[in-house]
Amino acid sequence: MENQTRVRCPENEELASFMKNKWKEMASQPKGLSDNIEMALSKAHFNVCNSKNPIRTIKDFSTVKGVGKMMLKLMQGFFGTGSGGTEPDDLTKKGKKTKGTKRYVPQRNSVAYALLITLYRGTSNGNEFMRKQELIDAAEASGLSRAPIAPEKGKGKPGHFGSSPQDWYSGWSCMKILISKGLVVKSSCPAKYMLTQEGKEAACDCLKRSGMAESLDKSASVEIPIHMDKQNSLDMEVDARDLESEVTSPLNKQKKPLDVPLDSLERV
C-alpha cells in the first residue's frame, strides 16, 4: 500500500509513527490484518500526515477524517486513558492562539521525551552539549521511549506503508519539534545540541511528573561513599599489615634458640 506523503505538521510525526508501528504489530500477528482494518489504518494515517493542525489529544484525533470508534480504540495506547478529557475544551477551539501561551512538554515515553531528558542528564555533569550519535545512543539505552530512535538501515522501500518501521520516518525527526519549540538549540558542524533555559525547565517538569526528579542527585551522592569505601579498604589493608608485623615480630624473636653452654648445664 503506497504512501509517499510526509507529515506536514511536525507535532504529528510521533502519532504517524505510532500508527505505522501499530499496522506492523497487527500484521505480524497470526490472524494478520483484515482488508477493512488495513484500509481504515491506511486512510487515517494518510489524513494524519496531511493534517496542518497538531493532534494533541484523542479528541483532536477524533476530528480527523476516516477516524471512527475502532481507530480511536486502537490509538488509546498513544494518547493514554482519558487524555481527551484532561485538557480544557477551549484548547482545541483557540488553536494557534494558545500555542504560544503554554510551554510545550513532550508526552511521556515519546521520542521527544526521551531525547529531552537524555540531553538534560548528559549536560548536567558539566558538559555544555551532546552530539547526535552520542545523544541517540544514550536515549536508546535509557529506555524512556516506546518507539525506536535511530533509523534502521537497508530495510524496506521508501514510501511503502508498513514495509519498514523506518522507511521515511525515524524517531530522531522529533528533534525538529524540540528545536522548533525553543527547547533545544543546534549549532556548529558537526552539530552540537544544547538545552535552552526553557528546555531545562521542561526536562525538570518531565522528571517531576514521572517521579525521577531526584535520580540525578541520588546518582551523584552515591559516588562519595563508594570512594570512601575504597579508601577505607586500603586503610584496613595497611593496618592489617602493620598489625601482623607487630604480632609476628616478637614471636619470631622468641623462636630463636638460646645459646647455653653445656658446662653450665652440667654444673646445675
TrEMBL record:
Any one Gene Ontology BP term: DNA catabolic process
Annotated compartments: Nucleus
Any Pfam family matching the protein: WHD_MUS81
InterPro entries: Mus81, WH-like_DNA-bd_sf, WHD_MUS81
Record-annotated MUS81 winged helix domain positions: 106-202
Keyword hit for Nuclease: yes
Keywords: DNA damage, DNA recombination, DNA repair, Endonuclease, Hydrolase, Magnesium, Metal-binding, Nuclease, Nucleus
Sequence segments annotated as region (Disordered): 83-102, 241-268
Primary location recorded for the protein, binned into one broad class: nucleus
EC number: 3.1.22.-
Complex and partners: Interacts with EME1.
Full protein name: Crossover junction endonuclease MUS81
